[in-house]
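Reviewers of the previous submission asked for a worked example of the structure-prediction workflow described in the proposal, so we include one complete record here. The input consisted solely of the amino acid sequence. No template or homolog information was supplied to the procedure at any stage.
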Amino acid sequence: MKVFYNNKINYIAKSMFGILLYHDHNFFRPVLWHQVLKAQLFYDSPLFLAWLFGVTILIFTFGVIFDTIPRKLTGCLLRTKPFLNLSCKFSAYISA
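From that input alone, the workflow returned the following structure tokens.
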């Protein structure tokens, strides 16, 4: 059986857990849904499903962006010469 692989899907999939943590955290949930998005105003609206779809896309997009930024920054940091030197010294210390 051939395994399906797609770079774009895998790139986005790396952010799924982060998106879950961002939008469903006990502290952040009331702030996001009640203060920022004001979900209570749309519960009885005939446009609720359209609003919900738009908010879902918005949260997903910002979640991928917010999850990608630290990934990119740490990737750049881990390839710097000072960090590589420190890593080699630490590895030599642990091995000795």
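The radius of gyration is 20 Å. We consider this example representative of the routine output the project will generate in years two and three.
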